[in-house]
Write the structure tokens for this entry.
Amino acid sequence: MCIFCQIINKEIPSAPVYEDANVLVIPDISPQAPLHWLIIPKIHTESLSSVLPDQALACLLVIQRLVKEKAVKDYRIVVNTGAEAGQSVPHLHFHLLSGRSLAWPPG
Ligand code: AMP
Ligand code: ZN
């Protein structure tokens, strides 16, 4: 079972920022910005290419809700897909990064 499924199943402890029936949000263990959260659909799937539409939409709505609630003004959403793009955990997740100036284009 992948590490995010183990976190979702509470086999590995985490400190969720947000959780509902479809989505878990946790702080990234290796933050790349002052705010770096991972928005994770609970049903295991590897990427946006395979995710169920409802699960993808649930993640986007949680992002919208959290940035509104926490008054996160400027932020970046990143979905690394595949090894060449930097994906290291084979379970779809959205990075939410904020709190510093972010370079563009990415390296
Ligand atoms: P990616 O490289 O896009 O697949 O992103 C995976 C992210 O998961 C990385 O930013 C890691 O720092 C993060 N990560 C890995 N293990 C954990 C964990 N146990 N708890 C929180 N974040 C994790
Ligand atoms: Zn998984």
In short: The CA atoms of residues 4 and 10 lie 10 Å apart. Helices lie at 3-8, 53-69.
